[in-house]
Write a structure and sequence with these properties.
Number of strands: 25
Number of helices: 17
CATH topology of one domain: Rossmann fold
Radius of gyration: 26 Å
Strand order of the largest sheet: 7-10-11-4-12-13
Structural class: alpha/beta
Shape: globular
Distance between the termini: 47 Å
Helix content: 25-40%
């Protein structure tokens, strides 16, 4: 490889530029790129090759290293080892702007444009055509924007304000901006995450035209059906490293999922199913969810959970696990479907009403949506029940202290005392304090979203013990986890989610991770849910 040199900008701002390279020609690649942040090695010897006229899918769970790799490709980060190669020459993009000027552009799921500017202005911002080298030539700019829009079959008006467009159309404007910059490489990072089905189809058509124009595309999505629809090759990342690369034929869905989750060639024995849940199938459900929908993330979810039963929601990242929980709880207003708690319709509700009806929810994001870091353990535990332990606006300290003491003892929360700041506790003990908050509302249904995320093995076992004891006492528990083995160990039954649709169930007694992978690989959302 040549010595890295500062990238020399290509001419930009010409909408009529010929993007095409020779079919299959390598345009951009990383060679043994590594990146470390403190003690965390985010990338480990990553090599990735992007070719002209090819859609390359980049897949992996959270923490796999995808975002770090994209930031290296676009000049946001510099690799500690290895490098970036453009057209066979080693380059060092010192900023995203330099990468753009060299034809490497990224389109992110968050729209990064100016709402009050026109479509044409957003497409050409920073490289507007000029008259006499000084004045913006708006007529020419609008004409050039119209040419790009027409070339890719878009229906947007170049003179319309961006804010007047839907999210899908704004996403297309972001892509058109990349084309106007003379993009030879387009990175599409979760471009469909907030789009409707019709908008996704338009995006697919645009991607097909970009491929035909010889542009190299890197497509990042958690929706595997989209990846198999669009991609010519895949790269699978896990724990900062590339673990598989191949075509869709070489990496069928089950092999791709196994590589993402680290299950290649493994066939562990069964877990879970150790609890006695006889009679659960015949009992009245404590929680019944029917055809629940919320935007494009929860498209058709149904499940039933009996008292004393622990049911897991199994699915890849992006399958709608967290969104399902939030919609059941009322943190997001459902567009359709019903939720019944102990036979009573919960309705399209709010969290306060859900709590009153016996539903408690523990968020996966402990720091942002869970603890109040500047408050005490006591205040965090009683936060959801202040009206119940107050009279005429005054808190009953006797009731408060009795409740807090009870849960500190029952859950084994290790703290210097109820008045200690919760931020001084370990992650596992913070999590148990949040479970105590849930239990203080006396729920019949407990929703736990990845409850052991970010805590050590010992604390994880403690949380498992608490959850199983709560179920034994009569609670209906629904839980998710990013670890398949944990779900099999902890639950009695799994409901499988795929792209916001519940597509199957499996009893965990005697089941192995490979059994669940088989359902994940074979399940496809129904046409009615699209």
């Amino acid at each position: 490889m040549n010595d890295p040199q500062q990238a020399v900008p290509h001419p930009a701002g010409r909408a009529d530029r010929n993007h095409a390279g020779s079919p299959g020609q390598v345009v951009l690649e990383t060679r043994n790129a590594s990146k470390t942040f403190g003690v965390v090695r985010a990338l480990r010897d990553v090599s990735l090759t992007l070719r002209a006229g090819e859609v390359h899918g980049l897949v992996g769970e959270n923490g796999a290293g995808k975002s770090t790799l994209i930031k290296i490709l676009t000049g946001f980060y510099q690799p500690d080892e290895g490098g970036v190669v453009l057209d066979g020459n080693a380059v060092a993009f010192d900023s995203p702007r330099t990468a753009q000027l060299n034809g490497v552009c990224a389109v992110y799921q968050e729209i990064n444009l100016i709402p009050e500017r026109s479509v044409a202005e957003n497409i050409f911002i920073g490289h507007e055509p000029k008259r006499f080298g000084i004045l913006i030539d708006r007529r020419r700019m609008n004409d050039m924007a119209h040419d790009i829009v027409r070339r890719y079959g878009l229906t947007v008006d170049p003179v319309a304000k961006l804010s007047s467009l839907g999210l899908g159309e704004q996403q297309m404007v972001s892509i058109a901006r990349g084309v106007s910059l003379g993009a030879r490489v387009l990175i599409l990072d979760e471009p469909t995450s907030a789009l409707s089905g019709a908008e996704v189809e338009v995006l697919f058509q645009v991607v097909d035209r970009l491929r035909a124009d010889g542009i190299a595309l890197l497509f990042v999505s958690h929706r595997l059906s989209e990846c198999y629809r669009l991609c010519d090759r895949f790269t699978v990342m896990r724990d900062g490293a590339v673990v598989k690369t191949g075509t869709p034929a070489e990496l069928p869905r089950n092999a791709l999922i196994a590589a993402m989750l680290g299950r290649e060639g493994k066939g562990l024995g069964g877990h879970g199913g150790q609890r006695d849940t006889r009679g659960a199938a015949d009992a009245q459900p404590a929680l019944q969810v029917d055809k629940l929908r919320w935007r494009t993330r929860v498209r058709d979810v149904s499940m039933r959970v009996a008292p004393k039963e622990i049911v897991g929601l199994a699915g890849l990242l992006g399958s709608g696990r967290t969104e399902t929980f939030k919609t059941v709880f009322g943190a997001q207003k459902a567009d359709a479907g019903d939720v019944h708690v102990q036979g009573n319709l919960l309705g399209h509700t709010a969290p306060a009403r859900s709590i009153d009806r016996g539903v408690a929810f523990l968020s996966e994001d402990r720091r942002s949506e869970g603890i109040f870091p500047r408050l005490s353990v006591r205040d965090n535990i009683v936060a959801s029940v202040l009206p119940r332990i107050s009279r005429f606006g005054f808190i009953s300290h006797r009731k408060q202290e009795a409740l807090v003491k009870r849960y500190i003892e029952e859950l084994g929360i290790k703290t210097a005392g109820p008045g200690a700041l919760i931020s001084t506790l370990s992650g596992g003990n913070q999590q148990k304090a949040l479970i105590a908050r849930c239990l203080s509302t006396h729920p019949t249904v407990l929703l736990l979203d990845d409850p052991t995320r970010g805590i050590d093995v010992g604390a994880k076992e403690e949380v498992h013990r608490v959850v199983q004891e709560l179920a034994d006492e009569g609670l209906a528990v629904v839980v998710t986890s990013s670890e398949m083995e944990e779900l099999l160990e902890l639950t009695d039954r799994l409901v499988v989610l795929n792209e916001g649709v519940s597509t199957g169930e499996i009893a965990t007694k005697g089941a192995s991770p490979d059994d669940v992978l088989a359902i994940l690989a074979s399940s496809t959302p129904s046409a009615s849910s699209q």
